[in-house]
Amino acid sequence: MFYIKSSKMKNFQFLLVALVFVFTAFKSDKPAYHLFNKEGKDVKYEKMVKEVEDADIVLFGESHDNPISHWLQLELTKDLFDIKKDKLMLGAEMFESDNQVILNEYLEGKITQSSFESEARLWPNYKTDYKPLVEFAKVNNLPFVASNVPRRYASLVNKSGFEGLEELSAEAKAFIPPLPIKYDPELNCYKSMMEMEGMGGHITPNFPKAQAIKDATMAYFIMKNWSKGKLLIHYHGSYHSENFESIYWYLKQANADLKIVTITTVSQDDVTKLSEENTGTADFTICVDEDMTKTR
To answer: Is residue 188 classed as helix, strand or coil in its secondary structure?
Structure first.
């Protein structure tokens, strides 16, 4: 009888030790990120790939200095290429529309890497964050759309409004959407810019328009290069597609039937549960530990 009780006690002690080990191991685990769906529920990467592969356009919103964003951009691009092959297209905010020719020349092997990197207006973190995408496109003969408005024209809009674009030459207008630019000042992505704290009296109605010309131009060149049956994945700062506005809004204005999947990136202290503030801003949210190192 004593033996049986001792045996049960030993089993109980073993179970207790095992549970302590499991919970301690779980607590000591430090995931760099978690993926969530639109409802804020935890999802697997494979689930996201499954939904994304059937889209027309994927709007991948990054945090510009977040290495997890950039790593997942490359991984998703590779996985989509395995599925879509030559039906995959890439595009990015980081390349302005008047650099399309030099980007194409490099992708087609007509100019050297050094020529491309010295002559194109590349972002400071190009080599760590965007070069892998460009090189992947080059090796696999994928189109890469330089979608953003030339920054000088965004500055022009900030100074003179959309009206300033009317004064551009026909040659210059090839790098922006057809005029007049459609614009809804009531969209929260633009309206909120007029309410930004710490800007004093320096904000004019042209300030959000300078943002809108970027969104409108990116959407325009996405649509100009995309065709039915293709999948175009576009990389940009999360602001340009979160809450299903900005680029998303302009794309839907051009074609309401487009199937668009949005991805955004946020940082939190606790990545295991998406905050209410960050829930519902995209179809998929990459929640990254806020202590993650930066790429620039």
So the answer is: helix
What span, in angstroms and rounded, lies between the C-alpha atoms of 146 and 95?
Answer: 5
| pLDDT tens readout for residues 27-61 | 557 889 999 999 999 999 999 999 999 999 999 99
First to last CA, the chain: 69
Tell me whether residue 33 is exposed, middle or buried, using C-beta atoms within 10 angstroms of its C-beta: 0 to 12, 13 to 18, 19 or more: buried
Look at the pTM and tell me if it is higher than 0.85: yes
Sheet holding 260-268, edge to edge: 33-37, 284-289, 260-268, 57-62, 231-237, 88-96, 144-148
- φ, ψ for residue 158, nearest 5 deg: -60, -30
- For the chain, the residue count is 296
Residues 181-221 have pLDDT tens digits of 999 999 999 999 998 765 555 789 999 999 999 999 999 99
Q: How far apart are CA 151 and CA 280, in angstroms?
A: 31
